[in-house]
Amino acid sequence: MSDTSTANRRSMIFMVLAMALFAANDAGTKYAVREIPVTEVMFIRGVFALLFLAVVLWWRDELRDIPKMFDWEVSLRGFAEAANGVLLISALALIPLGNVITIIQLVPFLMTVIGALMLGERVGWRRWLAVAAGFLGVILVVKPATGAFDAASLFAIAATFSILSRDLLARSIGLRVPAFIVALASVLAGIVIGVGGAYFQAWQMPHAAVLLSCLASGICLVLAQYFIVLAYHRTELSVVAPLRYSIVVFAVFYGFVFFHEVPDAWSLTGMAIMIAAGLYMLHREALRSRANAKGNE
Fold first, then answer.
1. Cα three-residue angle 104-180-47, rounded to 5 degrees
2. Less crowded by CB within 10 Å, the N or C end of the chain?
3. Beta carbons within 8 Å of 128's beta carbon, 6+ residues apart
4. What pLDDT shows up at residue 297?
5. Mean pLDDT of successive 10-residue stretches along the chain, which has 297 residues
6. What is the rounded (10 degree) CA torsion for 92, 148, 260, 160?
7. What pLDDT does 293 receive?
8. Which long-range contacts (CB under 8 A, 24 or more apart) does 268-273 make?
9. Res 182: pLDDT
10. What is the distance between the alpha carbons of residues 87 and 83, in angstroms, rounded to a whole number?
11. Residue 89: what are its φ and ψ, rounded to 5°?
């Protein structure tokens, strides 16, 4: 097996782990935002994440690397993540978890387009059809120009662009900055945004269940940040990006278990199309990898 194939497989595993943790973070956040304002959730979750990070950095002997978070790409990624937090938490407060997560799955398909047009990665016509199917899946979930359209979906749509920026920056940063230092920059940016939001939203005294959900969300968020940074290291963008669709499965599961949310028929159809498109792109990549391996024999 070539070094590239090994790196791709490892990155795929990291991506799935990151998506499971991101979905868990969103589920905990959704619970909290039903009780307290968006910016308060960001602040409390950020404080818990910061405490968890401090222990991790101490344990890994990476406290000396903290100044690296002032690298311009790391800082910019942190604020992209903070902007993403505001948009996603706002969406989670108003529409089902599964719908929010499905909408932001525009990102891997957009990244495949960027990988082909800007980074010189080879994308065949079949994967272009899969990209088109991914966009169709989101349209079925959002249902624009129909009575079922919810304007809160626009928060999730806007979040796709902050996520896109975040992930492109993560790929550029690679491993020159430790993953937990990158996560630290994101957490601190979220805390800053949360504190700033206190001027616009009246904060409330959270009860124990809200604090517990923020604690769990903070830990999941840090671990998810760690794995997604690893997922984009030394791999092809168009290979790893499609695996983001796995978060849809986790989100629907968490939404059903914790919030009794059941997607309607159109949303389920859109989710199925998006997952099928992601699987097909993985299938095409597997065929290409095998062909390359034979060519190197």
1. 80
2. C
3. none
4. 53
5. 69 89 92 92 91 90 90 90 89 89 83 78 80 89 76 87 84 81 89 88 89 91 81 71 81 92 89 85 69 60
6. -30
7. 60
8. 269/137, 269/140, 270/102, 270/136, 270/137, 270/138, 270/139, 270/140, 270/141, 271/98, 271/102, 271/137, 271/141, 272/137, 273/133, 273/134, 273/136, 273/137, 273/140
9. 87
10. 6
11. -65, -35
The tokens of 175 are what?
Answer: 């491993």
Give the per-residue pLDDT at 294.
Answer: 62
Predicted local distance difference test score (pLDDT) of residue 209: 93
